[in-house]
Amino acid sequence: MIVGITGGIGCGKSTVGRLFEQRGFWRIDSDAVVRERVLPSASVVAAVGNRYGRGVLIADGRIDRAKLGEYVFSNDEERRWLEDLTHPLVFAIWREEFAARPGGQWVVEVPLLFEKALENWFDFTVCVACAPDQQLTRLEQRGLPRGLAGQRISKQLPLVQKIELSDFVLWNEGSPEFLEAEVDRLIEALVCQS
């Protein structure tokens, strides 16, 4: 079984992913894959450096993610270019991971699951959701200014559409214990349906 977790930025996808992992699922955090495996790759560093110049690279040759974010979140064409560069690499890593543990129970955090029409990768899709003010508050607590948080939220499919498209929804505004209980009920339902 492969479960795709999506939702708005700051809604709690990673928290839910970790809860699945604690309950025996193999977990892939797509943002971490991009950050730790895709952006550091020589081919991506070279392509990004060629497109934006050395100003987007740190002195040691790595990509300055904050500077890159300024380019891509303020320009849809640049964001699409970066996605076209990085997403095939992410999907190749998914395939490698799935092949290494065939028949395993997987949970994959995918912020752009519906935006990129990735539903066919998954047996079930789950949207983690919360109210917009809660979402902005969480992003501010992570150190993202409200303006930038709003900008990043605007680049994703509206949360209400993600909710409508998902097989299941987890509402993440209660206590951590409530979310854990929701995840336990969801896993029980998924196992029964698979």
Task: Give a short synopsis of this structure.
The chain has helices at 13-22, 30-38, 42-52, 65-73, 76-100, 132-141, 146-154, 159-165, 176-193, and strands at 2-7, 26-29, 106-109, 124-129, 168-171.
Q: What distance separates the N and C termini?
A: 7 Å
User: Could you tell me the mean pLDDT?
Assistant: 91
Give the count of structural domains.
Answer: 2
User: What is the C-level CATH assignment of the largest domain?
Assistant: Alpha Beta
**What is the H/E string?**
EHEHHHHEEHHHEH
Structural class: alpha/beta
* CATH-defined fold name of the largest domain: Rossmann fold
Across the major sheet, the strand order is 2-3-1-4-5
Number of helices: 9
* DSSP E strands, number: 5
Beta-strand percent range = 5-15%
Which architecture name of the largest domain does CATH use?
Answer: 3-Layer(aba) Sandwich
Low-confidence stretches: none
Taken from the alpha-carbon principal axes, the silhouette is globular
What is the assigned CATH homologous superfamily of the largest domain? Answer: P-loop containing nucleotide triphosphate hydrolases
Q: Kindly state the percentage of residues in helix.
A: 55-70%
Indicate the radius of gyration in whole angstroms. 17 Å
Main β-sheet, in a few words? 5 strands, parallel
